[in-house]
Amino acid sequence: RVAPPRNSYGVLCLAFSTISVMLSVVVEHIFLLVIVTLISVLQNAFFATKVEREGKEHNNKTAFERVSCANRNCMDSYPTFLAVMWCAGLCLNQAPAAFAGIIYLVARQKYFVGYMGQTSQSTPGYLFGKRVLAFLILMCIVGIFNYLLVRYFGSDYKDTMEMITNAASALLLIP
Amino acid sequence: RVAPPRNSYGVLCLAFSTISVMLSVVVEHIFLLVIVTLISVLQNAFFATKVEREGKEHNNKTAFERVSCANRNCMDSYPTFLAVMWCAGLCLNQAPAAFAGIIYLVARQKYFVGYMGQTSQSTPGYLFGKRVLAFLILMCIVGIFNYLLVRYFGSDYKDTMEMITNAASALLLIP
Amino acid sequence: RVAPPRNSYGVLCLAFSTISVMLSVVVEHIFLLVIVTLISVLQNAFFATKVEREGKEHNNKTAFERVSCANRNCMDSYPTFLAVMWCAGLCLNQAPAAFAGIIYLVARQKYFVGYMGQTSQSTPGYLFGKRVLAFLILMCIVGIFNYLLVRYFGSDYKDTMEMITNAASALLLIP
């Protein structure tokens, strides 16, 4: 006869503990992604500062056009990158997604610097970091596929998948 | 005398099960949105490939300008679309949001192809997919309104709202 | 002998209540961010309408170029702003993040209107709202730092941090 009230109290208590656990769990599962996002924002600010400084000088028209074009190409693919990285991090695991994000940021930095320094006849192409984005898209697909497998067949391959993607993300380092 | 340890064990056990339930719940409530995001990313890659191919040919200046302009207009509204779709999916229900996202992607594909093929005096306008975005914004507003109603009045209209939006999303198919 | 089934029933019951609690918790912790995102989307639509109207008139070339440039500068920094605001809101607290977002939107509106109205020799710079973005980045860093402190040292400074950021966000009003 004492069990039901204790149980209902337990439910209340657990609902509250769930909420506080959940919040720290949310931060726990995204903090690497947030850090990479912050780094990318600082890189954006660096690019924008470069554009603004070139725009103020007014004496070098081609240099301004080149840095502005490099900045625009980087900014065009920025939302795509953010969306893919966050989806991959949420669906499967944040560590390889954040690692791939760092690789992408390094590739973007190289692209921007290469764009600024080169003459116009040998500018780098419009696209960059294709391999990293393809890897992140693959991670998303694997994560969703895994979720559907678990839902309809009840077997959880997530641990295996995470191990494989952790290993595969090291392959991105090979140039 | 046995109850407290079992209870505290149950709390621990539930905290862990909560975390694992929560993660699959997170994926469960966003996987349609993730799929639509992936499709939009692949479409972005298709657009960017078109721009890169036109840029490499160098013999057709107006064709490059047109495809570049179409790509830029699409990219300009891309973050807006992503933000609205995810907000609508998180606040109310993912199914109609993902459906509206698919409709938007089809409209964008039509816009891009139409922009490339047409002569300059009859280019399509700067905006496209206004109806879909308006529908998604409406979904966000309904979701937040519903949350505030539940919080301050305690009556849950979410089921009714979801049914209505599910029905309304079918109306988007009418051209 | 009755305890195990009741317990397992309680687990099931709590798993369901957790899911429903979690969903309303998710909306509870992001609804201010969603509202600010919606306002920013409406502002984007306002900018795009301005660009489209100027583009249709065709008689004022410099006005179109200026409004198009202002729109592009605003759109370039839009994903950065969204990413930083959501990260700050998720990591620490949504109220100061949403407040800083509103301040940013006001700064953007001023920038756009100022860009349209001014003559070309005194256009405002490429960047705007730097202080707000710096504040949001700081909030992200504080939130992650706080999470790492809690994880490795077990002391929770989150309440203190939230109070400080709530107070600091009022400082943004000083022009």
TrEMBL record, chains A, B, C:
SUPFAM superfamilies xrefs: MAPEG domain-like (SSF161084)
Cellular location(s): Endoplasmic reticulum membrane; Nucleus membrane
Keyword terms: Endoplasmic reticulum, Leukotriene biosynthesis, Membrane, Nucleus, Transmembrane, Transmembrane helix
Gene Ontology MF terms in the entry: enzyme activator activity; glutathione peroxidase activity; glutathione transferase activity; leukotriene-C4 synthase activity
One Pfam family in the UniProt entry: MAPEG
InterPro entries: 5_LipOase_AP, MAPEG, MAPEG-like_dom_sf, Membr-assoc_MAPEG
Membrane topology: Multi-pass membrane protein
Transmembrane segments: 12-42, 81-107, 128-149
A GO cellular-component term linked to this record: nuclear membrane
Main location: endoplasmic reticulum
Gene Ontology biological process terms in this record: leukotriene biosynthetic process
Highest rank taxon of the organism: Eukaryota
PANTHER family for this protein: ARACHIDONATE 5-LIPOXYGENASE-ACTIVATING PROTEIN (PTHR10250:SF2), MICROSOMAL GLUTATHIONE S-TRANSFERASE (PTHR10250)
Subunit structure: Homotrimer. Interacts with LTC4S and ALOX5.
Function: Required for leukotriene biosynthesis by ALOX5 (5-lipoxygenase). Anchors ALOX5 to the membrane. Binds arachidonic acid, and could play an essential role in the transfer of arachidonic acid to ALOX5. Binds to MK-886, a compound that blocks the biosynthesis of leukotrienes.
The name this protein goes by in its record: Arachidonate 5-lipoxygenase-activating protein
Native source organism of the sequence: Salmo trutta (Brown trout)
Taxonomic lineage: Eukaryota, Metazoa, Chordata, Craniata, Vertebrata
Gene: ALOX5AP
